[in-house]
Batch of 2 targets.
Target 1
Amino acid sequence: MAIPTLAGAMLLLTLAYWWQSNLVHELAGIAMFSLVARHVYVNRHWILRMFRGPYDGRRWLVTALHLGLLANMLLLVATSLAISQSVFAFIPVAANVTVRDLHWLGAYWLVITVGIHLGLHWSRVMALARSVFQIKTDCALRRWTLRMAASAFVLLGIWSWGAMGVATKLSWGRSLDFWDFSRSVAPFFAHWASVLALPAVLTHYLSKLRWARTAS
């Protein structure tokens, strides 16, 4: 659990480009890519079983989303190497505005795809958490507390979606609305964490609703 958690933290840190130097931004990106590579290696059995067994609607959807996430990461790696100004500045690639825009586009979409990935595996995350904290019993109070927290994340995510201009960023639209880090820092990370949580919560509950209807 620590690996994807740290990778998510590095992702949020890389979004705060204007709050840090370019070197810190690139080092955070390298750390994120390294953690993701480790995460993929730990779960390599899924890739090895990709072409085995029958496919139903859910498996097709999950596979397509995971392949989209991997493609997004590869796009970020390629554009990162092309526009590097510090760690990989020795690579003789003439970066242009389009490559930089692709890099930012991939970063914003990565927030969404990571959120969907988290939502698809939320039941597994909760099972691991119960094992780590040795929670052996379930109770209505904890269930409703978690549901209220999920509802709060949805509301915060919707608010943050507009506050951070996410729709414009995901559609490759140009915006001059940059976060003023000289005034505040913590709200920036809180907004983007909420944006990441929004697709995670929606994906988890929509998938539960759909497969519950299918089972009935």
Target 2
Amino acid sequence: MIQILLGPDDMARIRFALSPLEELVHSVPVLTGSGQYMAHQPWRARALSSVAGIDLGVLTALAQGPRFIADFLAPPPEAMTGRFTDELDAVASTPAEEVVCSLDELSAGQGLPEPLRPLYQHPERELSRLVSTMAMYWRAAIEPVWPRLRSLSDADVTHRAQQLTTGGLDKVFADLHPEVTYASGELSIDKPRHHAVRSASGAGLLLVPCVFAWPRLLVLHNAPHQPTLTYSPRGIGQLWSAQGDARPQPLAELMGRSRAALLAHLDLPVSTTQLASYLGVSSAAVSQHLAVLRRCDLVTSHRSGRWMLHQRTTLATELLLPGGRPQPR
């Protein structure tokens, strides 16, 4: 059991953040695992061919330890949505002694896996090689799907923020993950192989939705890091299949191919820029189509930070289904 004690000052320092680096790190066990990550099999099938030729031995050994991952591999994000390059720079600047300490914790007295011994013996030299590998892996496997990962996590943060406003922490943690319970300032995480009590001591709590965390809950509780829970956002089951399930062809005869294709991409909240990239048209053209679709109650839009995110309505989803007939209400 891990317990995180939250005082009055911590309540004012609870925040959410999205992290491209967290997605990268937690995707590695999915890529190298097997049937236990069934929800991500469509991504895994494509990514395996994309990363062929990249030596992932060190990254794999760091990211899929039986009890821990190396803390320096994914430090808590500072911004609501960090840039991958900035997060990777933070990994590259990890002091050598911190790398060694993290590897000692990872080994837990059992000896380091063979791929990690050069990193332990020559952290300055080998860390730069690891960072290069992570950059290559990002470009091959994660960057192509980052807009969808971000959209799903953005939607979850919006939902959790509403929960926090209407029901406080009790409501937020009621369905965050089965391993989490919260009562009277005490956060308990059911991890039978871990035993720790950490007072947040004014550092607050960081909540990071991460698609590739599913179905796990990841906990960072070691000082001096801010206590962090990395959890899977809502809607994982539809993430990889929803676009392929939509059938815009009949609808295109009614409203035109561009607007039908746009609706097919809006199963998750997506920004104007992302839509333009998906469809190969200008942002101005996308904005014009969205304005028409909003007036027809087929699209809703809301702001998330500096992004305006768009999602199709239930009516639009029904129109995209085979037959294209809205159900009576």
